[in-house]
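Example 3.2
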Amino acid sequence: MNIVIIEDEPLTAEDLTDIIGRIGGETRILAVLDSVKTAIAFFLKRPGVDLVFSDIQLGDGLSFEIFRSARVDAPIIFCTAYNEYALDAFRSNGIEYILKPYTTAAIIRAIDKYYQLKKHFVPAEVDYEKIIRTITGGDRPRATGSVLVYHREKIIPIGFEEIALFYIDKDLTHLHCFNGRSYVIEQSLDELEQAAGRDFFRINRQSLVNRRAVLDASHYENRKYVVNISIPFREALVVSKNRTSPFLQWLSLR
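Structure, written as tokens:
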């Protein structure tokens, strides 16, 4: 069985290679690919690949871009720490997913599943464009309507287009407008993320940002980004490491 590993963390790739080697059997690692670019070039040569182990987030984009750009008939086992949007999106396309940090037992179970399903594999066209849109929010509608704010015995409707960001501070959800006004609101950030549509992006657990507020993004430590917005804000808006690739995809959707 010819296996390809797509992983940009050298220690993780080495660990996975070692586990597969210790499992034994007729397995051979054809290649370890560390970027979208090198993987596309590899698969365009149409090598005889039986199984792919792939991370989702690579340094230069999402691994789904590989399968969109080059035909990959081999089944895919996703090994990833990214479990917030992607799992539901690709569950019907990959044969298995393994959350990091994974164990030897999890890898063995995944390979056993490959052998069990091998006789039934039928190459199929997978809409990776749709998967990417699902992850980045491109399939979500634009924000419409308003958020109701209860302020000094008044109920104030504030349209999503007026809102620069939502954030959590001291366990309370806040709304911050482009005009500088800020309010405490009752909705959770999860509820707001669903209602806000594709114009907003959840950059981390505490912050949901409007695309219109984003000026640019600067590199930060450990492959993260700091989002610079058009209004004064007291704290740095840091994109979580597991959201950087979807964040860049979201910026490019405009």
